[in-house]
From TrEMBL:
This is Uncharacterized protein. It comes from the Eukaryota. It comes from Manihot esculenta.
Length: 438
């Protein structure tokens, strides 16, 4: 228990230490030496099997939380609280913080995979004490009854793609793909369906287009609306959906889609399943035969872009970008292919993306932030999303800005924390306030 508490304290920036002595005087000395003068309340966690000085400790003005006690009537002090499991501790702390601050604070319950939560929390993005703009963040766990946690929150922030079990793509443009979530996420969905007034940033169904690379490509065709009169053009890449790599008219289809080789081949399912990031760069038509990329797939234009990728982060009304090293130009890729026996280059885009050794700055002077910001605002309206990201490359020669990927709730870790995290909080608060005003 102590090791888990220390890990939790480090993740959420608590001060935490273990008291070896059950003596009230000794406990007070230890805390005084460690923290000095404290303005606020000290929380002391007991395990119920350690019978003893609950009331003595609580008489110091500390709040005592007893773990493993089923009822509070065992204790005759209002400063003694009871929890059954350690997982209830954060809910309890959140409730106490909200009680101390008052009704002006907004509690955000969030759901994401542990590694993502740890990354966000360690950077101070998910504090359980109030942010400057009045937010408290509470991790929701499926290890506890969801209803008992939701009563403590005002809204839910989710990374629903972390909870996907399977995706069954729809063959029709009119119908949605069938997405199966974990049992816990299904419970949340049922709750949201029966509580239509409960606020979610962003509603789960709004992320569905981001799960389907074909739908995203089709949405990006609408970028033509913002390209009038500018020096540069922003667009999606040319693309073609492929159901079978052995289709007899594949060559004709590539030509009609304005695709030349090499091209990049991606699964149509964009995230949430094991093979969503298994891709290939194909140099010859014969390379499509027996290609080990999940079907259906999307063949996408490969853009020469000076090995430079611009990661765009949309946080409410604010847009940030970071420059990263990317895949090399075609001439370098051909050399890699020759080393591979002229075969396709297979890779997992999350792990082994072939990158250039060049400094990712060659085309950064041609990056049109105003144009990209217009596209970000257009996408925010089109997708009806608050927090999302997309990747842009600048095509050599034409200067076209090409959006090659769109994703929901990115980590935005390439942007300094002191810039992006306040923007993250502001985006959430502004969305909540806009909903309240309707």
């Amino acid at each position: 228990m102590i090791s888990l508490l220390k890990k939790t304290a480090m993740q959420y920036s608590f001060d935490c230490f273990a008291l070896d002595s059950s003596s009230t005087d000794d406990a007070l000395k230890v805390v005084t030496l460690a923290w000095g003068h404290i303005e606020g309340t000290i929380l002391y966690l007991f395990s119920n099997h350690k019978k003893g000085s609950y009331n003595q400790i609580s008489n110091l003005g500390w709040i005592v939380i007893v773990m493993g006690a089923e009822v509070a009537t065992e204790f005759d002090n209002s400063n003694v609280l009871c929890i059954n499991k350690l997982e209830e501790l954060l809910v309890t702390i959140c409730h106490l913080n909200r009680k101390a601050v008052g009704n002006n604070v907004v509690t955000v319950g969030y759901i994401m995979k542990p590694s993502r939560e740890e990354d966000f929390a360690k950077r101070g993005a998910l504090p359980i004490s109030p942010t400057p703009n009045g937010l408290i963040f509470l991790p929701l766990t499926f290890g506890l009854p969801l209803l008992s946690q939701l009563k403590h929150v005002d809204m839910v922030l989710h990374k629903a793609t972390d909870e996907i079990v399977s995706v069954e793509l729809s063959d029709s443009a009119e119908s949605s793909s069938k997405i199966t979530y974990t049992t816990g996420m299904q419970e949340l969905q049922r709750y949201l369906e029966s509580h239509s007034d409960f606020f979610v940033i962003d509603p789960i169904n709004k992320i569905y287009p981001l799960l389907d690379r074909l739908k995203i490509q089709e949405i990006l065709l609408g970028l033509e609306d913002i390209n009038a009169g500018g020096n540069h053009t922003i667009r999606g890449p040319h693309f073609l959906k492929v159901n079978d790599f052995n289709e007899p008219d594949l060559i004709l289809g590539l030509s009609e889609a304005k695709l030349s080789l090499p091209s990049i081949v991606k699964p149509q399912i964009a995230c949430g399943v094991a093979d969503a990031h298994s891709m290939a760069i194909v140099f010859r038509v014969e390379d499509f035969k027996d290609l080990r990329v999940p079907l259906p797939a999307v063949v996408q234009e490969y853009v020469n872009h000076s090995s430079t990728l611009f990661k765009i982060y949309v946080l409410g009304e604010k847009v940030f970008y970071a420059v990263k090293k990317s895949t090399p130009n075609v001439d370098i890729l051909v050399q890699l292919s020759e080393m591979n026996g002229l075969g396709p280059l297979l890779f997992d885009s999350l792990k082994s993306l072939p990158t250039s050794s060049e400094d990712p700055s060659a085309d950064s002077n041609h990056f049109d932030l105003a144009l990209v910001t217009d596209a970000a605002n257009w996408l925010a309206r089109k997708l009806d999303l608050t927090i999302f990201g997309f990747d842009v490359v600048v095509q050599e020669g034409t200067g076209d800005h090409v959006i090659v990927d769109v994703n929901y709730l990115p980590s935005f870790k390439e942007v300094p924390n002191d810039i992006c995290i306040p923007a993250f909080w502001d985006a959430i608060k502004m969305k909540f306030e806009s909903r309240q005003g309707k």
